[in-house]
Amino acid sequence: MAYTVLLPKGDLLPRILTGLVTVPAVIFLIFQDPIYFKMLGVFATFGLLREWSRLSFGESYHWMNSICLLAILVAFVPVLHMGSIAIILAGCSWLYYLNIFRMKKFTIVSAGYVYISFAMSIIIHIMPKIGGSYFILLVLALVWCVDTGAFLIGKTIGGPKLAPRISPGKTWAGFFGGIFFGLTGVWLSTKVMGLKVSNSFWIFCTAAVFLAHGGDLLESWCKRYFKVKDSGSFLPGHGGLLDRLDSLLAVSFAAALLWYFCG
Question: What is the pLDDT of residues 42-70, one digit of tens each?
Answer without folding.
Answer: 888 888 888 888 888 776 655 666 666 66
